[in-house]
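Dissemination and training. As part of the outreach component of the grant, students in the summer workshop were shown how a complex can be specified as a set of sequence lines and then modelled as a single object. The example used during the hands-on session is reproduced here so that future cohorts can follow it. Participants entered these lines:
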Amino acid sequence: MSNTLNRFVHINQRIEQALSHSGRSADDAITLLAVSKRHSLEKIHALYELGQRHFGESYLQEALTKINTSPYSDIIWHFIGPIQSNKTKDIAQNFQWVHSVDRIKIARRLSAQSPDHSSPLNICLQINISQEVQKSGFSSSEIYTFMEEIINLPNLAVRGLMAIPEPTNNVTLQKKAFHQLKELMTQLNKEFKLNMDTLSMGMSNDLESAIAEGATIIRVGTALFGAREY
Ligand SMILES: *Cc1c(COP(=O)(O)O)cnc(C)c1O
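and obtained this result:
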């Protein structure tokens, strides 16, 4: 498992360097979300033993098997995949975070189906920042229509925004999309008097650009685990 150790050390170095290059403080909180979809529980536990606690999953059945099998109750599970409305109950009851809230119906159902007396479910609103036709997410204008309702849903803590921009190796374009997401959060905070504090943006190939533009959670799969297994 020394591969795991090498990758983990390397990612943490990339985060530190990106922070210092962008003038952000080394103490600035970046949460490394280890995207463990299509990787075994064994690999998750190898990272857990190195101190990793936040894990992200995209496929509900696969995730539930892992959550129910893992003996570690202090893992913080994040759901980051596409959400079918008939799956919201299982998601609300098994995850502490949901990054992929991409339509109003999903927000309503997650709030209604959160377990009683639990702490509110942390959510990010997914924004279709590159305005791709086939991509899910609220458009930047549409989100204004629903924001008031979403922030008043009783069992949700609206923590911020998430985006999966159109993949590109052009650093200028990467940064542009991430910058737009940050601007949108700043505007929404002002308009609705909120304190959203989370920008979930940046993956294996563009995490430096995301950190430069203010990411607080980066979602890293391949660079931590290698190619997905199944
Ligand atoms: C799979 C996935 C990731 C991780 O992507 P890598 O390129 O493997 O780092 C991040 N975010 C979302 C939403 C994903 O589905």
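Residues 35, 37, 58, 80, 164, 203-204, 219-223 surround pyridoxal-5'-phosphate (CB under 6 Å). Students were then asked to discuss how this feature might be tested experimentally.
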